[in-house]
Amino acid sequence: MMARMGKPSGHLLALHLKQWRSTFILALLLVWLAAMVGRAAYLQGLRHAFLQHKGDALANRVVEMPAHRGMIFDRNREPLAISTPVESLWCNPADVEASPGQVRQIAAILQMKPAEVRDKLEDSRNRGFVYIKRRLPPDQAEAVTRLDIPGLSLQREYRRYYPAGEAVAGLLGFTGVDDSGEEGLELAWQNWLAGKPGSQRVLEDRHGNVIEDVQSILSPRPGHDLQLAIDMRLQYLAWHELELAVTANKARSGSIVVLDARTGEVLAMTNVPSFNPNNLDGVKPWQMRNRAVTDQYEPGSTLKPFTVTAALDTGRYSPETVIDTEGGSWQVGVNRIHDAHPEGMLTVSQVIEKSSNVGASKIALSLESQYMWQKLHDCGFGVAPVSGFPGVAEGDLRPWQHWRPIEQATMSYGNGISVSLLQLARAYTVFTNHGVLLPVSLVEGARNTSQPVRVYSEKSADEMAAMLENVVTPEGTAPLASLADYRVAGKTGTAHKPDHGGYSANRYIASFIGFAPASRPRLIVAVMIDEPSAGQYYGGTVAGPVFHNVMDNALHLLDVAPDKVMPVHAGPDETGKAART
């Protein structure tokens, strides 16, 4: 009986144990649930800001918004430099998921070597930002986007475009991959042209792709536009004629400068060979220089007018004063000076017309060396012209205290002194402005710290301007520089190039510089051809025709009225008398 009653008692114990176990498990579940609720409340409430910051750090990124670089225009608002939007391909290498085949596809689109692309995607995993290629053309950017490779992203940037290409490359210079100026006016006016970049917060997916613009933090500020004094009609004209001359004369190079004779503004300035600023592949460093400004050379006889005008200012000389040119050969110490075209007795005016070295030397040695140095210095020689261009050459005008007689003599006809073409063109403003030297300017409306300076008396400067007209007559050294409709005044230069402490026997610089219309000068054109080797090397025959073509076309483009009086054959007037002109 007792045994039978023991069974129910064991069964109840088992039920009791199962209920206890269930209660314990339920309690654990309730505690776990309470802990989860508490933890959630803690994180959602007390730690919300911290977690939000951590989440944002993983999904949000602040990106730079590039600023639009200011445009460059010519004086007529023709665009010379434009920044166009482009895309650059970048990635976080750790996020990129690209198969070997896709790597080859990327390389083919970007015209890169597969190994180069692979290195950027694989060998830089410790870096969070890698450019694969900057400034992609639109077709490349679109093709890469179609690949839909996780981790690759495009970033908006700007690329500089130069519509005029080679014609204005040396003057404008170019920008680098970051759209900042590296040469020329792009470098000189970097702070003016460059804008201030902005910043923006974006939302990224797990592959680093931007999926949403969240917030603009700082708006980009575009750069300022720059308007030059350059007239692109004259710039194209000058570049074209110079290129023809350099090719025809098989010259090493050439430069040309066109100035407004009334203001000193640079209306054209170019060099040949030039370069394409839109594609710098294979361009040599010397081609990038604006050689009309940065390079210096011995000007030869184009310097004679300054020596002779200084002599006129002393009152001891006039255009009719006679100089014995010794048959074209004259001894100075142990050295002998020669004329290319031997003459005998010449007036001062004929010394300029015939370009007599002996005549110029005799005049120079009659002047005090300090006085001659001062006049040359006042004309801007040995001083870098303030033009707003980087790397401007100041030339070489040695101190007068160290001059020997032969040096003073040869300096009168442009040997032993060096100038830049811009420097020489500016100096000729003394003959277009009655003895006053003008500052030069490349930028329209830019304030130049230099002021006009009187160098020669009005009488002496005007007498020299009249003498320079004789140079382009059949009796002068540059008849090829004359114009049919305009009176021209100018001077030739033919200089042996310095070589190993002396002068080369067969390497020359041919130059011509002049102004027109001579009665009321409007333009100054300076031409320099370096090492012509096609047979001709005199300034009148090599540089003179370039001057002729550029000046003639430029004056007509600018609608400058002719000043050369042509013979008119008229019938009798109403009174029966012949009409006079």
Layout of SSEs?
Elements: H1 2-46, H2 48-59, E1 60-65, E2 72-73, E3 79-91, H3 100-110, H4 114-122, E4 130-136, H5 138-147, E5 152-161, H6 169-172, H7 184-188, H8 190-193, E6 198-204, E7 210-218, E8 226-227, H9 232-248, E9 253-260, E10 266-272, H10 285-288, H11 291-294, H12 304-313, E11 322-324, E12 329-332, E13 335-338, E14 345-347, H13 348-354, H14 357-365, H15 369-378, H16 405-411, H17 421-427, H18 429-432, E15 436-437, E16 453-454, H19 458-469, E17 489-499, E18 502-516, E19 523-530, H20 539-542, H21 544-557
Parallel strand pairs: 2-8
Antiparallel strand pairs: 1-6, 2-3, 3-4, 3-5, 6-7, 9-10, 9-19, 11-14, 12-13, 15-16, 17-18, 18-19
Low-confidence stretches: 1-6, 570-581
Gross geometry = elongated
Number of strands: 19
Tell me the major beta sheet.
5 strands, mixed
Radius of gyration: 39 Å
Strand content: 15-25%
Whole-Å distance between the termini?
165 Å
Query: How many helices does DSSP assign?
Result: 21
**Percent helix range:** 25-40%
User: What is the second-level CATH architecture of the largest domain?
Assistant: 3-Layer(aba) Sandwich
Query: What's the CATH first level of the largest domain?
Result: Alpha Beta
The CATH superfamily of the largest domain bears the name DD-peptidase/beta-lactamase superfamily
CATH topology of the largest domain: Beta-lactamase
Mean pLDDT: 86
